[in-house]
Amino acid sequence: xxxxxxxxxxxxxxxxxxxxxxxxxxxxxxxxxxxxxxxxxxxxxxxxxxxxxxxxxxxxxxxxxxxxxxxxxxxxxxxxxxxxxxxxxxxxxxxxxxxxxxxxxxxxxxxxxxxxxxxxxxxxxxxxxxxxxxxxxxxxxxxxxxxxxxxx
Length: 152
Prior knowledge:
Layout: H1 2-11, H2 24-30, H3 38-50, H4 56-77, H5 106-126, H6 136-151
Helix pairs in contact: 1-4, 3-4
């Protein structure tokens, strides 16, 4: 459950991106506001203490790190001029990184590749992938496939 909360903490901010179903303009206006803020950071930090499992403190810290890694990645590489409103609802002032790169960029491709390496290592050596959060059976098949590709 702890790994699942950590992963959820890293992606939950993008639920405010569902505004795209209201149109592109709504998406551009409200994404990076409602869930990309310090209130959500506090919520993901508190959530492990509300659920019944061990290692609440370390899970809480990893959830907050995961959330802020998402925010940092959005600041760096979600497109020039797209702010993150971290202090919302206290302030609507958006935070920018003046050297922000496009979402579809070599930098984001490199980050994706670099993150795939530890995921493959964990799959090979520990027998799990992020797919375990959705289906243990599908995860076992994926791990089997990865091990087959690397060791046969």
